[in-house]
Amino acid sequence: MKRRVAKRIWIPALAVTFLFVGTSFKSDFFEIAKQIEIFTTLFKELNMNYVDDTNPAELMDTAIKEMLGELDPYTRYMNEQDVEAYKIKNAGEYSGIGATVRRDEDRMVIIEPFKDYPADNAGLKAGDEIIKIGDIVVADFKEDTGELLKGAVGSDVDITYMRQGKQHTTTLTRDEIDVDAVPFYGKINETTGYIALIKFNKKAFMQTKEAFEDLKSQGIEHLVLDLRENRGGLLWEAINIVNMFVPKNQVVVTTRSKVKKFNRTYKTKQEPVDTEIPLVVLTNGYSASASEIVAGALQDYDRAVIVGTRSFGKGLVQRPKKLTYGTQLKVTISRYYTPSGRCIQALDYWNRDENGKAVRTNVKDYKEFKTKNGRTVYDGGGVMPDVEIASQKQNTFTRSLIEHMVVFDHATDFYYANRFDNVGDFKFESKDFQNFKNYVKRSNFDFETKTEKALKKAMDQEEAEDFGVSVKTEFNELLASLQDEKIASLDRYQVELTKSLKDEILKRYFYRDGLYEYNMLHDEAILKANDVLNNDNLYADLLN
Questions:
Q1: What is the distance between the alpha carbons of residues 262 and 430, in angstroms, rounded to a whole number?
Q2: What pLDDT sits at residue 394?
Q3: Of 176, 213, 200, 214, nearest to 96 (Cα)?
Q4: Do domains 93-178 and 184-388 have the same CATH topology?
Q5: DSSP sequence for 129-189
Q6: Which residues, including other chains, have CB under 8 Å from residue 34's CB and lie 6 or more apart?
Q7: Which residue stretches of the chain have pLDDT < 50?
């Protein structure tokens, strides 16, 4: 309770204290010194005089993060724990229980246990809710609970968890965890290879190269590189992967900044592995940053056909800057540009709408650029595919169902209600989708459309009191019909939702290997990529 009150008082003060950040830091050092002095005295007086005890570290952490929140979502302050997590993410290895977990308010859920690691060996499943770690109750612990799961190799941790309404306890022995950048590769058919690259950590290039060389030794003549759901990572790993398919000394990406030393042109430095093999790169709305560098460069050089949906559109570059006491500032320093000269940043964080939301670049404002072969490509909105898979497009409704874990929680229920012994037996039929629709209706899922928000905002205005009873009645009827329309949207987006449900469910039974094995035979984007690669004329036409 104390912390919540403290935040409510503190944040408005910051809004005044740090107004200098956007402009003054650039040139007016007197103003900087003045504002810092104001802040220092405010911080001192608040901690000395506030009616309840305050936590200075927590207040400062909140203050800094609120200030940076006015910029872009990638510029952020990292305390010691954040810095350690950042290092682990890029290194691709850590010691812990071997599972992805998600903390939402008081709930901590196992998202995915990794095969043959401690969590999996102890029998933990996706959907298990961890309620206690050792003697610490998760709901009462306000710090990063995930840190409690990490520790020295060989050390034990007791976990109490809920599964399908029943409480269980288990002891896990922590181990060294390898986080693969390439969790799977294989052959779609005798001549077409497939590599799933899910992150750009320090293992990305080496694992991609090893997978490719292994597939070539098995006689593949075409390759599908899957970058869907890959949200990026290390820049040099992306450059080296482009270099596998593009000759030495070719521009991969250029960065431009107000600070001259951050203006860089990055080129391929090594001899390529293969500049001839026909290549398809898969992207979707979660392919971002380093993924877009790879896809954008290969598209600009007409070295690959891009299949799928438009990528996320993150054309901003960050660099960590060391601060005191082991903390860091991860700051946006520049924008990046593909070889043709396009910046594919989709959101403008410096020109926001009336609700404070970043504005998306309007399609009519996109600029044209040319690939090596003279094809037209555009900036302003992510990498657009050469072959679009419409059924895998993102929309706010399905994205909200995924982000609010409605799809995830139903997949958990499906897993415990059905049994499949191998991937070939797996089925998700129309009756299963109907069960999902019923689940959504029963759930507490709350999704407001833009129309609903606008209507409610209009009716909240003072003059709405003059509309009378009949107008208010019609307003409520309209909201009710919009609610019905949202349920109808489940049918409209059945293909997209079924894909998301299948992906989530398959991992429960057969881990990621089973998911990729199934998708190589059933996923629409992979099937289309295979068609393109096995039709020489179509492949050539798309690149010319």
A1: 54
A2: 78
A3: 176
A4: no
A5: EEEEETTEEGGG--S-GGGGG---TT-EEEEEEEETTEEEEEEEE-EEEE--S--EEEESS
A6: none
A7: 1-25
Query: How wide is the angle at C-alpha 237 spanned by C-alphas 402 and 543, nearest 5°?
Result: 80
Tokens of 242: 């482009």
pLDDT at residue 109, as a whole number: 96
Q: Could you say which of 125, 128, 226, 289 is catalytic?
A: 289
Could you state, in order of their start, the residue ranges of all structural domains in the chain? Answer: 2-70, 93-178, 184-388, 396-522
What's the per-residue H, E or C state across 70-101? CCCCCCEEECHHHHHHHHHHHHCEEEECCEEE
Provide the token pair at 478: 């309209």
Are the CB atoms for 254 and 224 separated by under 8 Å?
no
CATH topology of domain 184-388: 2-enoyl-CoA Hydratase; Chain A, domain 1 (3.90.226)
Under 8 Å between Cβ of 91 and 75: no
Model pLDDT, residue 132: 95
User: How high is the pLDDT of residue 106?
Assistant: 77
CA nearest to 286, candidates 198, 349, 373, 359: 198
Residue linked to tokens 């305050």: 54
Q: One-letter amino acid identity for 454?
A: A
pLDDT at residue 417 in the model: 96
Distance between CA atoms of 258 and 51, rounded to whole angstroms?
45
Please pick, among 72, 226, 300, 523, the residue that the annotation labels catalytic: 300
Residue with the two structure tokens 């000395």: 48
206-245 per-position pLDDT tens digit? 999 999 999 999 999 999 999 999 999 999 999 999 999 9
Catalytic one of 203, 314, 499, 528: 314
Each residue's pLDDT tens digit, 340-399: 999 989 988 888 877 778 888 888 889 999 999 999 999 988 999 999 999 888 788 888
Q: In which residue are the tokens 């740090």 written?
A: 18
* Residue 132 bears catalytic tag: no
Q: Which helix (H) or strand (E) is 360 found in, with range? A: strand 358-360
Q: Is 513 an active-site residue? A: no
Is 300 a catalytic site residue? yes
